[in-house]
Amino acid sequence: AGGTGTPALQLAKAFGAARIVTSSSPKNFDLLKSLGATEVIDYHKGTIWDALAENSVDVVYDNYGAPGTADAAMKSLRPGGVFVFLPGKDGGNAKHPKAGVKEINYGLCDSSKYEDLDELKVLAEAGK
């Protein structure tokens, strides 16, 4: 969790996610749990995909955008789930997508939609 992953944790918690899993180095575990993570995986010891069971999550948010991430995420996503990614490190849509999983490239958004920012403001002011 970094510059966009940290608020993603807070938003997931604010919107009622029961299970919020992220990866980090151990020095950041306490911070991430305080922001809403229910599980933090040490990426020095393995990948988040090793820790997630097949068909066990509804949403994957990839704020790094590395090649192959979408395909790695497909196993853990439930049919009807969503893979949201920010492109940046040559990542993108899955080469082998799972049926029923929606993929969203959030790298191109309309910054003129102030309504979305207003909703975030309400959450921030409520301490969420």
Query: Going across the major beta sheet, what is the strand order?
Result: 3-4-5
Percentage of residues in DSSP E strands: 15-25%
Question: Counting H and I runs of at least 4 residues, what is the number of helices?
Answer: 5
The count of β-strands is 5
Low-confidence stretches: none
Q: Roughly how many Å apart are the termini?
A: 17 Å
Give the fraction of residues assigned to helices: 25-40%
Cα-based radius of gyration, to the nearest Å: 15 Å
**SS-based structural class?**
alpha/beta
Q: How would you sum up the major sheet? A: 3 strands, parallel
Mean pLDDT, to the nearest integer, reads 87
- How do the SSEs run, as a string of H and E? HEHEHEHEEH
Q: In one word, what is the shape?
A: globular
Describe the structure.
It is globular and about 40 Å long. The strands form 2 sheets. It has a 3-stranded parallel beta sheet with strand order 3-4-5. Strands 1-2 form a two-stranded parallel ribbon. It is built from 5 helices and 5 strands. It is α/β, with parallel strands linked by helices and 128 residues long. The longest helix is centred in the last third of the chain and has 12 residues, at 114-125.
Spell out the key features of this protein.
alpha/beta; three-stranded parallel sheet; two-stranded parallel sheet; 128 residues; 5 helices; globular; single chain; 5 strands
